[in-house]
Amino acid sequence: MGTETEPDDEPEKSKWLNRSDEALGLLCMSVSPDLLFHIEESETPKSAWKMLDAMFGQLDDMRAHESENELLGLNPSDFENLQAFFSKFVHIRLLLKGCQVEKKDSQLILSILSKLGPEYSVFVSTFYATKAALGDTWTMPSFDYFSSQLIREQDKLIQMGSLKSKSHALVASTRKGKKTEKKKETKDQPKKETKIKPKNDTNTSTSEPKAQKS
User: Taking the CA of residue 135 as centre, how many other CA atoms within 13 Å lie in the half-sphere pointing to its CB?
Assistant: First the structure.
């Protein structure tokens, strides 16, 4: 784009203005119509860049605020299993990182612990009991280690029958619904009438009557 200051020398000034116009034109061609509205009145590329930078900064702040609220609002009970929950959780956390917002592992772990159902009461109590027993020597585990341990706890609870995965519950519910529907259809079907065939009369002769003798 050249120098930011317009030169005093006439030939250089003409070149500078041409380059400035070219750069401004490229900027206007590279943005979407809704952004072009905000920079089309800019006289220099520098002023257009400042406007775009301010706008994208505001968008990043809004996106970061929305993502942070969504992250802290995620609840494990709303997902089929913990694997699906953590997949969504990590995705939003990466979006926040792209907006220059870092969430500490400790804050996220404590937030998840507070939302676990009663089935995980032993896991939660063990976590806090270990923290209290070790005191100052205790260190918060990494988020990856915590999530892997929690998934192992989920699998153990499912094997013990203390926890039913939503996928299994859905399959069972679907099968039950099909059986009920089939049973209802069978019940609603009209019964076929059984026709009783008349018994043949054994006393009735089927032979022709004999001619009388004269």
Answer: 1
Mean pLDDT by 10 residues, the chain (214 residues): 54 66 63 57 66 63 81 90 93 84 90 93 95 94 95 93 61 48 59 56 50 49
| Structural contact between residues 109 and 146, judged by C-beta atoms closer than 8 angstroms | yes
**Which residues, at least 6 apart from 48, have a Cβ–Cβ distance to it below 8 Å?**
24, 27, 28, 39, 42
Distance CA 139, CA 158 (A): 29
Alpha helices in 135-198 (DSSP H): 143-160, 166-188
User: Distance between CA atoms of 197 and 199, rounded to whole angstroms?
Assistant: 6
Helix axes 82-98, 143-160, angle to 10 degrees: 160
CA 31/CA 28 separation, integer angstroms: 6
Residue with token string 């800019």? 42
Tokens of 208: 């022709």
Q: How many residues does the chain have?
A: 214
Contacts with 155 (C-beta within 8 Å, 6 or more apart), sequence order: none
In whole angstroms, give the CA distance from residue 36 to residue 57. 16
This model's pTM is above 0.70: no
pLDDT score recorded for residue 107:
92
pLDDT value, residue 24? 61
Tokens of 38: 């905000």
